Amino acid sequence: MTSTNNSQKEEKEHEINPKSPLEYPWSFWYIKPDKRSSWEDSLIRIMDVKHVEDFWATYNHLQIPSKLARDKSNCDYYFFKTGIRPMWEDKRNSSGGRWLLSLGRDEMKLDEIWTETLLSLIGDLFSFNSDPTPLSSFITGAVVNIRQRGHKVALWTSEARNEMIVREIGRRWKKMIQLHPQMKIQFDLHNEGGGPHQRPMYEE
């Protein structure tokens, strides 16, 4: 079969089975902190995804967080809208904050919650038809911190001062990841450093 015929066959297959576009394009990032390099130099963009099929191809290629935890790796995965860097200094993040969930060393929950968070983002599940403005437009990305002292998952937003919007994002996230009502998430401002003694701005 000639290359021309191959090309025509691929085009025909694409027409029959087109890819499913995502509401927003997203980027996978990874970092394993290295004292010999700056944070930005250690940050690696793995892949940009625009379609459901591309998301799953990338996701299935990556090691799950619990595997990295068992390997005693201190590292982070980031999943952000393409064009937004996973750092609070980015202009889309600088006026926002993050909903933070601390999981201790529960590796099973770590995988479940990280996966459900990603699926809620690519499925645009944060937005309801009744919303005046889609809540997904205020979400910039998600982070999983894998640490031997305890793991964390966070949902980042571009908004911090509109309490109604921020709290509703937090409530919907808790529901999507099926978090027990007694487990709390807290919201911190990006521009206040997020130190261990910082008082959360909101809690759900």
Automatic annotation (TrEMBL):
PROSITE patterns (UniProt xref): IF4E
GO CC entries: eukaryotic translation initiation factor 4F complex
InterPro entries: TIF_eIF4e-like, TIF_eIF_4E, TIF_eIF_4E_CS
Family: Belongs to the eukaryotic initiation factor 4E family.
Protein's name according to its UniProt entry: EIF-4F 25 kDa subunit
Assigned keywords, A-Z: Initiation factor, Protein biosynthesis, RNA-binding, Translation regulation
Keyword RNA-binding: yes
One annotated GO biological process: regulation of translation
Family matches, as SUPFAM superfamilies: eIF4e-like
GO molecular-function terms, A-Z: RNA 7-methylguanosine cap binding; translation initiation factor activity
Naturally occurring in which organism (per UniProt): Didymodactylos carnosus
Record has RNA-binding as a keyword: yes
